[in-house]
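Morning F.,

Quick status update on the modeling queue. The single chain you submitted on Monday has been processed. Sequence for confirmation:
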Amino acid sequence: MQQKGIILGVPRPLRGLPELSTVRVRVTVNGMQVDEAAGDAVLGHPLNSVAWLANKLAEYGLALAPGDLIMTGSFTRQHPVAKGDIIRAEFEGVGNVTASFV
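Structure tokens below.
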């Protein structure tokens, strides 16, 4: 399986969000739950991968810039989808995202 894109929601400031390492996500495909996990599945905390990236870039004299899009890693594994599928991820205390594949 190969990832070929991302789905972006409305940006939310970190202030006011629940502790990301404890946020649970529930993933459904066509209304059937296929996965559930918490943010600590991403290096213990999703922001740990941002710190790793910033440090790695610094080794090459590079830096993150305001507005950069960073994929921190997924709480769950990827799930195959096909034409007609609807996949939904519900992040407790954060929000939901739904994608339809046509």
